[in-house]
Every structure is written in C-alpha cells, then in structure tokens.
Please model this.
Amino acid sequence: MTAIRGARERARSEITEAIKDEARKQLAAEGAAKLSLRAVARELGMASSALYRYFPSRDDLLTALIVDAYTALGVAAERARDANAEPPPHPAPPPPAVPRAVRPAGPRRPDAARPAPGPPSVPSPSGAPSARRCATGAWTIRTSTR
Model:
C-alpha cells in the first residue's frame, strides 16, 4: 500500500511542478495581473477543475511561486556564503560572491520570477495570506527580461 501512496505523491509533485513552471512562463509573458488558472490548465492539457485540486485559487498559486522564489534566493546566497566561509580578519561587507550568486537568475533565466527584497509572506494559522496583497503591496514579482 505504501508503494501506491508513494506513486501518487510522486505524480502529485510532478504535476504541481508542471503547473508552477507553466505559471512562471505566463508571468514572464503576461505579468502577474494576467495570470489565469484556466490558461495554465489549458496549456497543460488539464481540465481547469483538476488544477483547482492542486491550487485552490490564483492567490495560492502566486503565493507558492513567491515562496519558491525566496527559497531559491536564500539557497543561492547560502551557497555563496559557504563557498567563502573563511571569516575576514576584520568586519567587512559581505563578499561579492553573495550578490553575484543571487543575481544571475535574471540574465540566465529571464522567465524566473524575482521577488523584491524582504522576507517572504508566512501563512497565518488560519490560512495562507492573500498573494494579491503581497503582489500589489510591499512585494512585487518582477518579470523583466533584461
């Protein structure tokens, strides 16, 4: 029985990633305001009702993309920091490797959603915060293709 559950979990994970990848493409092409769950489902060959099993709303999908972007940003910064782990002899600004490791998402991956600086929104105990509030308030998703 665990093998069946494992297969289901793997399939769900793959479909979730495919949904996020397609949503990132739409963000790069159209912007956050025009992101549509129906359009994502159409591009993936899914029924829109099936997509709602993975992300109950557009805001939930945007929140997942924002959290993924911040996670990737943090991982890149930590790797760069660890690569230059030897402490300087005196207090100094962070080594240039950290900003360079965080920045390459733009030129190499123009389709990547890059958030504004700051901590990601953390879901409250009652549920996820409004991604629209995050996207239109203090947080933005930049999809420029510099």
Remarks:
- Residues 122-146 have pLDDT under 50 and may be disordered.
- Strands lie at 114-115, 141-142.
- Helices lie at 2-30, 37-44, 48-51, 58-83, 97-102, 105-108, 131-136.
